[in-house]
Design a protein that fits this description.
The structure holds two protein chains of two kinds. Chain A is built from ten helices and ten strands. Chain A is of the alpha/beta class. Chain A has a ten-stranded mixed β-sheet with strand order 5-4-1-2-10-9-3-8-7-6, sandwiched between helices. In chain A, helix 3 runs parallel beside helix 6 and helix 4 packs across helix 6. Chain A is globular, with a radius of gyration of 18 Å. The two termini of chain A are about 35 Å apart. Chain B is mostly helical. Chain B has a domain of about 240 residues: MetI-like (MetI-like fold, Orthogonal Bundle), CATH 1.10.3720.
Chain lengths: ~260, ~350
């Protein structure tokens, strides 16, 4: 299920503005890759290029190559809609569909692909996905309640359940715990550790302890200054990055000297 | 994305818990209020403002009550008169009917015309609003939105003239075709009147008239769809249309109902266009293509009022009371529909 992503010389533009420049990295399957860096360094923008979500902003485009198990995600015959079905995403703020019940939220992605799904199959998917997101025990008695009736942390796990229900290859997380309290954050981090057995996970985080706790590899992004493009400064095993980084700016950032 | 640490938005339950002990305190999340006494001038200004706001708010209730009382008082002579008195006293009152028997068909005609108008206008408005909010390039969307707003500025008498002189002759062949091919359905039973001064023509003109208001409100509602929800749908691999169905329409549903009710309100009370187009009749007929079958309350009042004697005026006011009641009922029904789905609306 999990697949490897190779990125080579990736530039991201918003119109004529170069937002991220020259990113080359490999994202390993069945691992957690953390993207860290100060505000505006382009890590979220870069994350969104992995499922072409940046294209919802008019004028956004990329140069360079981005392949998932050898398939160019930006090939001329590749539909961004198809990419997003392979590469799931969890956002900064929990965003369950407020008009849908908990169960319907989980099934939302499946209903897009396959309108006719038998009741028993649907029940199975709902249970599996919610168990997978460590939410089942909390909501199994109220699956028909609105998703917005849950707490913030539960909503975020519901969003994770919704993302994994369609069995994507890759799961992108854009600061998934930044809007949550410490207990809910812990629940999400535990969940990430379990999910990496099955998925390739890329997570953007501002919380360096979190990056150190959950990730196998860490990539540090930085910008030269306002209006300058963000760049990948260095990427290594998380343990190395947090103990003996090669670059001075990485060390400064990690030790809290800026950012 | 914003990189500043964001506070979790309190869930509905938390908000309720915060609000319960101190309902008049500021927005939740403001933190504890320090008990510092305000400046006396500011206190007075605050009191003055709150009084002014309360008065303004009460005015609406007083007005509503005043209208209701006026309608009932002035309608009373007609309401308490016997059918014979009405028939004798009013030249145009149909013989052998009660007041209810007189109002009934007009109420039916009023609702029928408005329902046709809504059935035509709501899907079209929704389409236009979605196009403006989610499909059209920005400049085109702005121009289109401006044009739609202009439609709302056209006086209804102009719509009436346009409907009679321009639209009706062009609709006649369509109505003739409808009655020939679908005549077996009671709705389209022929012969189609020529000139088509029929309720279906009225419904179409009313639809054009209520299109701008519904479109304008729907557009605003659709534009307010949280970006988070749209992105949630897109990230699941939804196409633009699927995203609209998953995120935009459910979010906008209650707003769309409100918009439709605004349109319905205008359609129910519309006078001039109906008066100019419709050939009136007082029956409970479903034949949309036949003339002399229907009449609406508002058009009838405008038609009879100038030459009505006191009892006649009272009778017309009684029909107005019926219109008032039905409009109120429609609005309350709409609110009930919206409230029933409150748990699932985007509001919490």
């Amino acid at each position: 299920m999990a697949q490897r992503i190779d990125i080579k010389d990736l530039n991201v533009y918003y119109g004529s503005f170069l937002a991220v420049e020259g990113v080359t990295m490999a994202i390993e399957p069945r691992s957690v890759t953390a993207l860290i860096g100060p505000s505006g360094c382009g890590k979220s923008t870069f994350l969104r290029t992995l499922n072409r979500m940046h294209e919802v902003i008019p004028g956004a485009r990329v140069e360079g190559s981005l392949t998932m198990d050898g398939v160019d995600l930006y090939g001329s015959d590749v539909d961004p809609v198809a990419v997003r079905r392979q590469v799931g995403m969890v956002f900064q703020r929990p965003n369950p569909f407020p008009t849908m019940s908990i169960a319907e939220n989980v099934l939302a992605g499946i209903r897009l692909n396959n309108r006719r799904i038998s009741k028993s199959d649907a029940r199975d998917v709902v249970e599996q996905s919610l168990v997978g997101a460590n939410l089942w025990n909390e909501v199994k008695d109220r699956l028909d309640r609105p998703g917005s009736s849950l707490s913030g942390g539960q909503q975020q796990r519901l969003c994770i359940a919704r993302a994994i229900a369609v069995k994507p290859q890759v799961l992108l997380m854009d600061e998934p715990a930044s809007a949550l309290d410490p207990i809910s954050t812990l629940a999400i981090e535990d969940l990430i550790a379990e999910l990496k057995d099955d998925y390739t996970i890329v997570i953007v985080t501002h919380n360096m302890q979190q990056a150190a706790r959950v990730s196998d590899r860490t990539a540090f992004f930085n910008i030269g200054g306002t209006g300058q493009p963000g760049r990948l400064i260095e990427m290594d095993d998380t343990r190395t990055m947090f103990s003996t980084p090669t670059e001075k700016s990485t060390e400064d950032y990690i030790s809290g000297r800026f950012g | 994305m914003s990189n500043s640490p964001q506070l979790a938005r309190p869930t509905a339950a938390e908000t309720a818990a915060v609000a319960a002990p101190a309902p008049s305190s500021g927005a939740p999340g403001d933190g504890p209020r320090t008990p510092v006494r305000g400046h006396p001038h500011r206190d007075r200004a605050g009191r003055a403002f709150s009084t002014a706001a309360t008065v303004a708010g009460s005015t609406i209730l007083v007005t509503l009550a005043a209208v209701a009382v006026f309608l009932v008082l002035r309608a009373w002579p007609a309401l308490s008169a016997s059918p014979e008195e009405l028939t004798e006293g009013i030249q145009w009152f149909p013989e052998g009917t009660t007041l209810l028997g007189f109002v009934g068909p007009m109420l039916f005609g009023t609702v029928l015309a408005s329902v046709i108008a809504l059935a035509v206008a709501v899907p079209v408005s929704t389409g236009i609003a979605l196009f403006i909010s989610h499909y059209a390039p920005r400049r085109m969307a702005n121009a289109l939105g401006y044009l739609i707003d202009l439609l709302a500025a056209i006086p209804s008498v102009v719509y009436g003239l346009w409907g009679v002189a321009w639209l009706a002759p062009r609709l006649q062949p369509a109505w003739a075709w409808l009655s020939e091919t679908l005549g077996f359905i009671p709705l389209f039973e022929g012969p189609a009147a020529n000139p088509p001064r029929v309720i279906l023509t009225v419904g179409i003109v009313l639809a054009v008239m209520i299109l701008p208001i519904i479109t304008a409100v729907a557009r605003e509602v659709f534009l307010q769809t949280p970006r988070l929800h749209e992105e949630a749908a897109l990230a699941l691999g939804a196409t633009r249309w699927e995203m609209i169905r998953m995120a935009v329409l459910p979010f906008g549903q209650s707003g769309l109902i409100s918009a439709s009710m605004l349109g319905l309100g205008r359609a129910l009370g519309e006078t001039m266009a109906v008066l100019m187009i419709l050939s009136p009749g007082l029956t409970y007929s479903l034949a949309l293509l036949q003339a002399g079958q229907h009449q609406t309350i508002a058009a009838n009042i405008a038609n009879q009022f100038p030459e009505a004697n006191p009892l006649g005026v009272s009778t017309l006011i009684a029909t107005g009371l019926a219109l008032f009641v039905i409009t109120l009922a429609v609005n309350m029904a709409a609110r009930w529909v919206v409230a029933r789905r409150k748990d699932f609306s985007g509001a919490n």
